[in-house]
Structures are given as C-alpha cells and as structure tokens.
Design brief:
- One of its GO terms (cellular component) is membrane.
- InterPro entries: Leu-rich_rpt, LRR_dom_sf, LRR_N_plant-typ, RLP29.
- It is a single chain.
- The chain has a 14-stranded mixed sheet, with no helix packed on it.
- The longest helix has 37 residues.
- The protein is of the alpha/beta class.
- Helix content is 17%, strand content 24%.
Length: 432
C-alpha cells in the first residue's frame, strides 16, 4: 500500500516531474519506488500463476504418451465413412480423444475405431510407438483394413491385460515376445492373415483366459497351455497339425474350437479331462480313436465331431440332452444307442452303424421332438415305422443307402445321392 505522504505528493505534483520542488521531487521518487516495487510484485505473482498453469497443462498427459499418440495417429487413417479421428486435435487434451482413456497423466486404455456395428473402421499400420504407452492395460482395434505386422514393441507393455486386433489384415508371425506379457488375459488376433506357428511362449502366459487365433494361416503344432484359468480356445480355420497330449489343455476350458485344421491322433484321454466344456467343435480334422461316452454328458448345446476318423462304438453313459450332435463322416460302428433319441438334431450319416434303429427314435420323430435324423450311408438293417406314418413337416428323416429298403419315402439332402439301398455285397447283415 502507498503511504499518505506519497499520495499527497503525487497529487500536488505538476504534470512534468522537473517542475516540482526538491521536497516534492523527493516525495515523488519515494512514491515511484514503492509503485515500481508493487508492480514488480504483481508481475512476479502473474508469472507464478502463468508458470503454474503451464505446469498444470503439461501434467495432463505424460510427454512420452503424447508423442506416442501422435505417431499412432499419423500411421492410421479413417476409411471412407468413418470419422473416428475427428476428435484427435492435439491442441486439446488427448485424454478426451475418442478411444483414449487415462489414469492420471498416463494412457491406460486405447480402443481405436468406432465400435458400432457396420463402422467402416481404419486403415494403415500400427506404429511401433504403441510400445511407449508404458501404463497401457487394454488395446483394441475395430474391424477394418489395418495391415502390416503386429509391432514387436507391444511386448514392452508389461501392464497389458487385453489385446484384441481382429478382423483386419495383420500379417507376418505372431511375435514370440508376447510371452513377456505376464499379465495378459485376452489375446484376440482372429480373422487376419497371420502365418507361422503359435509361439510356445504364448502357452506359458500364466493369466491367459481367452485365446482367439481363428481364421488365419497358422501352421505347425499347438503348444501346451500352463494357465489354469484358460476358458476359451478358438483356433479354427487354420493349417495347424499334430496331436494333443492328455495334459496339453487345462481342465478350466469351457469353449474349444479346433475345426478346419489338420489335427490328428486320439483325443479320448484329453476330452475326459475337459468336463467343464459348454462348446466343442473338432470337426474337419483327422482325429482318430474312440469318442469317450462321458463327452455326451457335458453341458454342451452343440457338439461338432464330424468329418474326422473317429472309430468304434459310441456309448453315451446317460440320456443325451445336447440339442445338436453331429458325428457324421467318421468310421463309427456298432449299434445306434437309444440314448441319442432325446437329441433334437442328430447327424449319424456316413458311418458304419448297423442293426435296427431303436424304437424310441420313431416315437420321438412322430411326436416332432426330433427335427433332424440323418441315418443315410450306414449299414442299418431295419426301422420299425409304419409305411403310412406321416412324418411331421417340422422333421427331416433320411434312411437311404443302408442295408434295407426305406419303409417310408422321405426327402434327403442332395449330397446323399440317388441310390435308395446299399448293394447287397456290401452289407454285413442283409435282411432284405
């Protein structure tokens, strides 16, 4: 504050400082020193506030994360019809960008692309700078046309728990260094163009819960999995081969899809351990040996074992409650178990079953409880059904090319062929 004498001198002093008396000039000088000091304090305080604001602004996002996001943005572009990157204005706070989630000054989640169904997605490459987001726990990419390899730098993200880059054009090998991500729980690289094998290091991930690598071009064998929390394993539509040791998959599995590969060898001892399965698809492989009876007691809605080389009799331990069972195109033999009569959609065609069809099948078929019963291309010798019986319109029955004349004429799939009866010379037991 200015004192009273300084205020009086400043008021009485003429316009030009030189015209003041010596006393007034002295008083005026004192006032100016006080005024300048006060001004300097105000200026210093303003500078402090400005510096504080700058510090607050720079603390919004770690500089390394800021630069990493810039590099990631430069390598990717919206496909026509997408405006995902419209909010990525680097003069603003990147933590407010679409798909960017922060905790403090670090990016912890990065979800690139508009997640709405039908979104055009993104194109370009995933930049190596992704590995600079040191706190990243989740990284995902919506379906689009992102190409190139999966960056090796992702293996630097020690906190990563969720990695999903599916339905794009990612190519090259799966980096073996992903095995360094010891906290990884979900790895989804499905529907891409990946080649090479599944690194054995993936099988060592201790927290892995979901592994989806389906619809790629992978080859070689599947490593054993050590994680006791693995619940979903989807490897269908690849070129994978080899066999499975009884302990190679953990009993925690609930979803297992291995179809459209070249796997071989027996699986009875393996399947006997996987009693928590609620989905099982081993179709279109070269698996051999028996199908364990207890598999038909698992809490499964859809059991796909068709087009393999399974052999021997099939003996469920109890009445089968699975709605769809497909055992077609194998080498199964023996009698058809009446335990299958409770299945809504049953495909036993193109096997080596023989004998009579159990009466319980006929009862449930006529009651429309069975919707599909395909028994064609076997060695069956009879079925107790009245030739005048009317098959419900909602049900399909095919009996052709067995060791009997079908007592009822029903439409069959085109691939069943035109021959109604198997040649006598092929039938082990013929009761024409």
């Amino acid at each position: 504050m200015l004192d009273s004498s300084a205020i009086k001198a400043f008021t009485l002093c003429p316009t030009r400082y030189q015209q003041c008396s010596l006393t007034d000039q002295s008083t005026m000088a004192k006032q100016r020193r006080i005024s300048l000091g006060f001004g300097f304090l105000l200026f210093s305080f303003s500078l402090c506030l400005l510096h504080s604001n700058v510090m607050i602004a720079s603390a919004i996002l770690d500089p390394l994360d800021f630069l990493a996001l810039q590099s990631i943005r430069k390598a990717l572009h919206d496909l026509p019809g997408s405006n995902f990157f419209a909010s990525w204005d680097f003069t603003a706070d990147p933590c407010n960008f679409a798909g960017v989630y922060c905790d403090g000054d670090k990016v912890v989640s990065l979800n690139l692309g508009d997640p709405r169904a039908g979104s055009p997605g993104l194109t370009g490459r995933i930049d190596n700078a992704i590995g600079k987001l040191s706190a990243l726990a989740e990284f995902s990419m919506v379906p689009g046309r992102v190409y190139g390899p999966l960056p090796q730098s992702i293996s630097q993200l020690k906190n990563l728990r969720f990695l999903a880059v599916s339905r794009n054009f990612i190519s090259g090998d799966i980096p073996a260094t992903l095995g360094h991500l010891r906290n990884l729980r979900t790895l989804d690289l499905s529907y891409n163009q990946l080649t090479g094998g599944i690194p054995r290091t993936i099988g060592t991930l201790p927290e892995l819960t979901n592994l989806m690598l389906c619809h790629n071009r992978l080859s070689g064998s599947v490593p054993p999995f050590l994680s006791q929390s693995l619940t979903r394993l989807d490897l269908k539509h690849n070129g994978l081969s080899g066999s499975f040791a009884p302990g190679s998959l953990p009993p925690s599995l609930q979803y297992l899809s291995l179809s459209w590969n070249r796997f071989s060898g027996p699986v009875d001892r393996l399947l006997n351990r996987l009693d928590r399965l609620n989905y099982l698809d081993l179709s279109l492989n070269q698996f051999t040996g028996k199908i364990p009876g207890r598999v038909f007691s698992y809490p499964i809605n859809n059991l796909q074992l068709q087009r393999n080389q399974f052999s021997g009799p099939v003996e469920p331990v109890d009445q089968v409650t699975i709605s769809t069972v497909d055992l077609s195109y194998n080498r199964l033999s023996g009698q058809i178990s009446p335990m299958f009569s409770t299945v809504e959609n049953l495909y036993l065609n193109n096997n080596r079953f023989m004998g009579h069809v159990p009466a319980s099948f006929v009862d449930r078929l006529l009651a429309a409880s069975i919707q599909i019963l395909y028994l064609q291309h076997n060695y069956l010798t009879g079925i107790e059904i009245n030739p005048t019986a009317e098959i419900p319109l909602s049900s399909s029955l095919c009996l052709q090319y067995n060791c009997m004349v079908p007592p009822v004429q029903t439409p069959c799939p085109l691939r069943a062929g035109m021959q109604k009866t198997r040649p006598t010379s092929q039938c082990i037991e013929w009761k024409g």
